[in-house]
Each structure stands twice: as structure tokens, then as C-alpha cells.
């Protein structure tokens, strides 16, 4: 809560091409909060440098992520859309929160364990303290709800623990945020290994459908998707993770329930079903892609939006940071 306003906050890293996991687990759901909440959606470029980035790619993807936010229905007049590195309070609060976060807590983060296994030659301190920067993002805006995919739930829970610890020492500082997840889109799995999350950093491009993939590519990737033994289109994530993932995707893109899908494809083989999933996905993404390309054609307009978004966000961020600094005993001279 910021005054009387309830706040929704989320972020996406511009660290790779965005996937239908990012879309269904997060971005697609963001616009539904704009009516009831004051909303902030951030392009978290500072998070992205915890693994090495090519500067030109990072810059391009920062524009692209902002354009995708809007292409997915976020109106910059109703939502504050901005880039993290343009609001310096994030890094400042992150330092403070580092002093209220335990080494053991950070060591238990599954994403840290996974990423340090994948980037064994670059286990930098930023990768380790990444969740405190994420906590700073959320807490700076006195956030009530954080729409995310399930892979980020642990980080939001740690953020709550940090905020509660801080509030115990300095009462009334932070709103305690809650993660919220989409029922079917919160964990979209890889098409090649359906027991693994679909990830923008996957090296196998066939395992991942990107939001910007063209129709033929989308249909080809679904045709190749790994399914399970048997031939029945039946939802059973334990026994049939491949088909169940495709059913979740079909449900998200068509709006049909799992029962309706089971009925619709009763007696059909996997081949027909995979084609149907590809088509419904391509149909749903087509308008997003068209809008994305027209937004990307005007870099100047995107930059003006980045500037406006950063100014709006800074107004809130400055207030929370000043409150925290005062509580801690930092000298403030006006
Ligand atoms: P990131 O950039 O990895 O992912 C962006 C969002 O997409 C969701 N997501 C998925 N959802 C369903 N299925 C999948 N396969 C899938 N893959 C990704 C993520 O859960 C996320 O919601 N640390 C965050 C970014 C962040 C943030 C924040 C989020 C930084 N500060 C503050 C919320 C609030 C991240 O790396 O997301």
C-alpha cells in the first residue's frame, strides 16, 4: 500500500528472447491488475548482468521487453513501465537489504544453485545476492501483490521474510507482498524435456517457443515436441508430462478447460493434437507480434516512455528509500 493505493509489481529480465512461459506465467496476466491496483512493471536489466551479456544485445532486448509489455496489452498511461537501471534507488535499497539477509537464506535459493551449476566459471556475488535486489524492487513500491511464475515464488517468499525482519526492528516500514500465480500458466515446461521448465536461456531452441517465433516455426516446434508413450490426450502431469504440458498450453491459449480438451481430442492421435496446439498458439501470438513490430519501429517513442516511466517510478522509490534511511539513522539534510 502506498497511501491509499494498493500496488502490484513485477519484472522481467531482458536476458534472452522471451518465451511463451514468460508470456503465460507473467506478462499476459499483468494487465488484469491495472484496474484495481497501481501497477509497476519493470525491465530488470540490473538482474540480467548476473550472467555475462553482450552489451548491444542487452540494450536491444531492453527496448524489446518494454515494447512487448505494451504489445501484451499494458497501456503506459495506466501502468508505470520502466527500466530498473534508470531508478538508482533499487541498487541503494538492495545494499541495505543485503545487511538484513542471511547467508544461509541466500544459499538455499534453488535458482542460485541451478545457475551456479550452469555458470560454474562465473559464480559472482551478484548471482548470490540477486534475491535481495529483487526484494528491493518489490519493497521500494510498498507492493501488495507480485504476479509471477512459480519459479519466482521462493524469491518472493524470501522478500517477505526480509521485510518482516526489517519491520520487526523498524516497525511500519514495508508492506508485506504476496506472490500470485496463474492457475495453468505458472509453470510451462520445455518441449524437449517436459519435466524441466521452459527457459529463455535454454540452448536448444526447439525446446522453447518464443513469443516472436513465426507461425511456421511455432507449428514445427510443436510437431517435434516430446510426448509420452501411449496415444491418449489425457491430463496426467506425473505419468504424461509431455502431453499434459501441451494440454495446459492449449487451455491457456484457447480458454477451454482441461475436461473440454480431453473430450475434444478423444480418439485423436498425438499428431493432430500437436498441430492444434501449434495453431492455437500461433493465432494467439499473431496480434502481439504485429503490435510489437510497430512499436519497435519508433525507438524515440520507446525512449520517451522509458523516461516518463523512470520519473514516475522514482517518485515512489525516493519516498520509500528516504523512510528506510531515516529509520536506520542515516543523516538526512534537506
Ligand atoms: P524472468 O525474467 O526469469 O521471468 C519473467 C517472468 O516469467 C515467469 N516465467 C515462467 N512462468 C511460467 N512458466 C515458465 N516456464 C516461466 N519462465 C519464466 C517468471 O516466473 C517471471 O514471473 N527474478 C525475476 C525478475 C524479477 C522480478 C522482480 C519479478 C526481478 N525483480 C520483482 C517480480 C518482482 C526473473 O528472473 O524473471
Percent in strands: 5-15%
| Helix fraction by DSSP (H/I, runs of at least 4) | 40-55%
**Main sheet record:** 3 strands, parallel
Alpha-beta content class: mainly alpha
In N-to-C order, the SSE pattern is EHEHHEHHHHEHEHHHHH
Main sheet: strand order: 1-2-3
- Distance between termini? 26 Å
Count of extended strands: 5
Total helices: the number is 13
Mean pLDDT score, rounded? 96
Could you name the ranges where pLDDT drops below 50 across 5 or more consecutive residues?
none
Rg from C-alpha positions?
21 Å
Backbone shape: globular
Which molecules are bound in this entry?
A: tryptophanyl-5'AMP
Give an account of the 3D structure.
The protein is mainly alpha-helical and 334 residues long. Helices cover 53% and strands 7% of the residues. It contains 13 helices and five strands. The strands form two sheets. A three-stranded parallel beta sheet has the order 1-2-3. A two-stranded parallel ribbon has the order 4-5. Strand 4, helix 8 (153-169) and strand 5 (178-180) form a beta-alpha-beta unit. The structure holds tryptophanyl-5'AMP. Tryptophanyl-5'AMP is lined by residues 9-13, 21-22, 25-26, 44, 47, 134, 137-138, 146, 148-149, 151-152, 155, 185-188, 197-198.
Amino acid at each position: 500500500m502506498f497511501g491509499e493505493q494498493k500496488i502490484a509489481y513485477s519484472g522481467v529480465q531482458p536476458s534472452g528472447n522471451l518465451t511463451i512461459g514468460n508470456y503465460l506465467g507473467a506478462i499476459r496476466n499483468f494487465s488484469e491488475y491495472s484496474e484495481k491496483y497501481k501497477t509497476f512493471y519493470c525491465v530488470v536489466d540490473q538482474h540480467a548482468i548476473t550472467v555475462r551479456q553482450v552489451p548491444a544485445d542487452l540494450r536491444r532486448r531492453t527496448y524489446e521487453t518494454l515494447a512487448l509489455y505494451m504489445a501484451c496489452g499494458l497501456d503506459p498511461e495506466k501502468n508505470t513501465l520502466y527500466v530498473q537501471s534508470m531508478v538508482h534507488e533499487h541498487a541503494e535499497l538492495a545494499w541495505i537489504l543485503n545487511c538484513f539477509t542471511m547467508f544461509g537464506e541466500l544459499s538455499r535459493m534453488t535458482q542460485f544453485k541451478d545457475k551456479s551449476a550452469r555458470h560454474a566459471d562465473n559464480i559472482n556475488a551478484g548471482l548470490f545476492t540477486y534475491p535481495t535486489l529483487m526484494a528491493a524492487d518489490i519493497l521500494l513500491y510498498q507492493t501488495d501483490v507480485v504476479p509471477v511464475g512459480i519459479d519466482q515464488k521462493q524469491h518472493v517468499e524470501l522478500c517477505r521474510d526480509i521485510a518482516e525482519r526489517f519491520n520487526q526492528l523498524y516497525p511500519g516500514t514495508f508492506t508485506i507482498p504476496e506472490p500470485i500465480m496463474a492457475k495453468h500458466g505458472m509453470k510451462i515446461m520445455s518441449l524437449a524435456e517436459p519435466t524441466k521448465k521452459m527457459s529463455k536461456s535454454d540452448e536448444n531452441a526447439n525446446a522453447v517457443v518464443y513469443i516472436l517465433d513465426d507461425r511456421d516455426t511455432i507449428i514445427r516446434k510443436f510437431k517435434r515436441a516430446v510426448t509420452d508413450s501411449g496415444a491418449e490426450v489425457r491430463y496426467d502431469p506425473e505419468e504424461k508430462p509431455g502431453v499434459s504440458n501441451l494440454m495446459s498450453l492449449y487451455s491457456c491459449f484457447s480458454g477451454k478447460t482441461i475436461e473440454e480438451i480431453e473430450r475434444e481430442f478423444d480418439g485423436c492421435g498425438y499428431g493432430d493434437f500437436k498441430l492444434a496446439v501449434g495453431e492455437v498458439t500461433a493465432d494467439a501470438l499473431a496480434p502481439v507480434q504485429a503490435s510489437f513490430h510497430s512499436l519497435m519501429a519508433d525507438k524515440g517513442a520507446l525512449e520517451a516512455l522509458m523516461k516518463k516511466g523512470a520519473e514516475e517510478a522514482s517518485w515512489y522509490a525516493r519516498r520509500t528509500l528516504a523512510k528506510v534511511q531515516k529509520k536506520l539513522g542515516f543523516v538526512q539534510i534537506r
